[in-house]
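Collaborator request, handled under Task 6.
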Amino acid sequence: MLTRFLELTMALKKGTRVKVSREKLMESTAVLANDPRWSPYLFETWGEVVELRGSAAQVVFGSVPTPPVWLPQELLLEGEA
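Structure tokens returned to the collaborator:
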């Protein structure tokens, strides 16, 4: 369990391009705690990690005029630079 946590937290760095995994999001407890109507840009466009705290990452989606959002790192798919 600790090894898996370390893999996830060490994989992302500031500036990493990411998308949200729809499959992982729908299986997570975040679905129960939030409005189920997720914006399509989370899954369709690339965002950039701007901050990391614990197991969460703050992501800004530059192609969409929205504020940054904090997401659990395990929900993110890493893209090529």
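The cover message to the collaborator said: "Residues 2-78 form a domain with the SH3 type barrels. fold (CATH 2.30.30.30). The beta strands are 17-20, 47-53, 56-60, 69-72, 76-78. Please let us know whether this matches your experimental observations."
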